[in-house]
Amino acid sequence: MRRITVFPSLGLTGEIAIPSSKPHLQRALLLALLNKSKTKIVNVSWNAETKNQLNALQKFGLEILYEDKTTLLLRGVGRDLSCHGEIYAGGSGMLFRMCVALASLIENCKVTIQCNESLFSRESIFDEDFCNYLDIDIERIEGEKVIITKNKSNIKKPLTVTNSTQFITFCLFVAPFSQQKQVPVIMDDSKIGYIDMTVKSMALLGSTVIHDKNHIKVTEYDSGNIEIKIPSDFTSLSYIASSVLSSKGESDVLIRNYYFGDTINERYLFKLYEKIGLKIKYDLDIGQLRINKSLLEPYDGKFSLKELPSVAVNIIAATSNLKGKKIFSGLNTINNHKSQRAFIVNENIRTMGANSSLIFDKKGMFDSICIEGKGPTKGGVELKSYEDHRVCAANIIASLGAEKESTIYDIHKLNDGFPGYIETLKDLGVIVK
């Protein structure tokens, strides 16, 4: 099924569960490889990218000792990495960068990675400073493959978060095995949440991370048996919360077995939703989170989304059906490797009847969107998703609060993020055909 028709919702009601956090699971799986002892990971859920990551890590030596639907028991190899066979990264920039960093730990390495053409279309994939820090060379060969080999470099320029936090993240993960045990960086506060997630993950293996002006310094890992509980996925939470926000009428959604990740991003997300019209209550003792429409008038004004790049477009889509003027800034942090997400969602909600406009700075750079809402949009349109799961979710969310049903394309791509999103909406009373 590649398209659906989403009918306007008069409110979402029911109990549901959501997936575990993909970025937390990605870091836990990598840490398990770098741990010579056993790593138990609980509250696991999978999507296409994390399944490919597990397969890749097994090529580097990760051993699965036990596995069920929600639990993994793994044994890693620490510094003693080798690579057995070709690695499949597909279109995953995360998986590609992770494998490049791991290849740097292998003496006389020659690691082959199978990619797809979408990966090569991104300027941010081949980062010279990333390669120089790791002392590796990346060469594209026949088809859509690359070979990673060792190549000593005396040039060590600072890494940045301009194109992705993952360059710093994966250099940090392998830095405890390096002689210098530090990563040169130039970093502001943007996207700091993902770096913080990495630092907390490394601490589970005893590595202390200290950030001074020009470097991030680390200490050695101390391998030992550890257990990692993966928190709930706040991006999937945002899909549900934005669906409630967009829908007309009263909603009452209870998310069971919700595990709070206590990240900068998650805390900021909760506060933002409360400002723009939701009431979110989390009960730590029983692990339940309840979402309702707020009885208070939502704030108008300016809101920064720089700490929420993975959920920005669905928040914009939801607010297109609300009243009031809202300006969302920080959109230059959105990952646009699959499509120009903010531009597409802006055009799609305008097609539905929203009054939205792009805002450019003095240099002509796009950073913000202004939405002057007058209530539900008209809907009744066909919306392309351009093979992008985040755009697809935003299209669905915008359609929930419109006056007429709309048709959404490329819904199969939801498997890249929240595979059960449509079925979850149906469980909450949404009509989808």
| Structure classification | alpha+beta
CATH superfamily of the largest domain: Enolpyruvate transferase domain
Please indicate the percent range of residues in DSSP E strands (runs of 2 or more): 15-25%
Radius of gyration over alpha carbons? 22 Å
Mean pLDDT across the residues is 92
Look up the CATH topology of the largest domain. Answer: UDP-n-acetylglucosamine1-carboxyvinyl-transferase, Chain
Low-confidence stretches: none
Task: Describe the main β-sheet briefly.
Answer: 4 strands, mixed
- Helicity level, as a percent range? 25-40%
Family: Belongs to the EPSP synthase family.
Keywords: Amino-acid biosynthesis, Aromatic amino acid biosynthesis, Transferase
Domain Enolpyruvate transferase: 12-425
GO molecular function, one term: 3-phosphoshikimate 1-carboxyvinyltransferase activity
Structure, described:
- The protein has two domains: 3-19 and 232-427, Enolpyruvate transferase domain (UDP-n-acetylglucosamine1-carboxyvinyl-transferase, Chain), CATH 3.65.10; 22-229, UDP-n-acetylglucosamine1-carboxyvinyl-transferase, Chain.
- It is built from 13 helices and 22 strands.
- The protein is 31% helix and 24% strand.
- The model has no long low-confidence stretch (mean pLDDT 92).
- The chain is of the alpha+beta class and 433 residues long.
- Residues 12-425 form the Enolpyruvate transferase domain.
- Pathway: Metabolic intermediate biosynthesis; chorismate biosynthesis; chorismate from D-erythrose 4-phosphate and phosphoenolpyruvate: step 6/7.
- Belongs to the EPSP synthase family.
